[in-house]
TrEMBL record:
<keyword id="KW-0808">Transferase</keyword>
<keyword id="KW-0418">Kinase</keyword>
<dbReference type="InterPro" id="IPR014729">
    <property type="entry name" value="Rossmann-like_a/b/a_fold"/>
</dbReference>
<dbReference type="GO" id="GO:0000155">
    <property type="term" value="F:phosphorelay sensor kinase activity"/>
</dbReference>
<protein>
    <submittedName>
        <fullName>K+-sensing histidine kinase KdpD</fullName>
    </submittedName>
</protein>
<dbReference type="GO" id="GO:0005886">
    <property type="term" value="C:plasma membrane"/>
</dbReference>
<dbReference type="InterPro" id="IPR052023">
    <property type="entry name" value="Histidine_kinase_KdpD"/>
</dbReference>
């Protein structure tokens, strides 16, 4: 789906879509970023079923994403169907094949791509694709009329107690800490974003504004006692 416009070769963007209404919004966000950088844009969807076995709803999304890719001049809409390998292996393979430098993935309660933001899977993904910047796009549910916020590549970080508050730091502290992954909001000079960590096999999310935790009630009591 080449659009005939010469683009920069040093950057290329891959948008990963799986299912649902948010796919179109992710594609449009990727297109906006690709336009700003004047670079190629690719779309990837992965499914364990063969394309011929997609249900009517999934087939409808594929059709709409194909139309949108043509409309926006996307370089290629890549469909990896009947895929039995782990998602991160497929994404890594495509990223290498197409020389991808930035990858956009949606995080939604109704999307399988949400797995990418969870614990060890994220670590595996970052190790699989160390050559690309990974952006997690927080997407509102279809029933909500909210926008999308984009976050930078997740980095290792720590939460420590400071007085009666909790603060994020990026070097391993000598005091007690909670270890997790921090996603900084793009376009901010401060450490604003979200911090995710695993506890009792469950992912927890804290909102960070200018280094400090905005929702300390989300920290498990056991951790609060531990950090004191």
């Amino acid at each position: 789906m080449m659009n005939g416009v010469k683009k920069q070769a040093d950057e290329s963007i891959l948008v990963c879509v799986y299912y649902g209404l948010n796919g179109e919004r992710l594609i449009r966000r990727g297109h906006k970023l690709a336009s700003l950088l004047n670079c190629p844009l690719y779309i990837l969807t992965v499914d364990s079923k063969p394309l011929d076995n997609f249900d009517a709803e999934k087939s409808g999304y594929i059709e709409r994403w194909t139309e949108l890719a043509n409309e926006l001049g996307v370089e290629e809409f890549i469909i990896r169907d009947n895929e039995k390998r782990p998602i991160q292996k497929v994404i890594a393979e495509v990223a290498r094949e197409y020389n991808i430098s930035q990858i956009i993935v949606g995080q939604s309660a109704q999307s399988r791509w949400e797995e990418i933001t969870k614990g060890s899977f994220l670590n595996v993904l970052l190790k699989e694709i160390p050559f690309a910047d990974f952006h997690i796009v927080a997407v509102s549910r279809p029933t909500e009329d909210e926008g999308i916020d984009m976050y930078e590549k997740g980095v290792r970080a720590f939460i420590v107690s400071e007085g009666e508050q909790y603060k994020i730091v990026f070097t391993c502290p000598k005091s007690r800490f909670i270890e997790g992954i921090f996603f900084k909001e793009i376009g901010t000079d401060f450490d604003n974003g979200i911090f995710r960590f695993s506890y009792n096999n469950k992912m927890h999310e804290l909102k960070i504004e200018e280094d400090f935790v905005l929702n300390p009630e989300k920290i498990p009591d056991e951790y609060k006692h531990y950090l004191v």
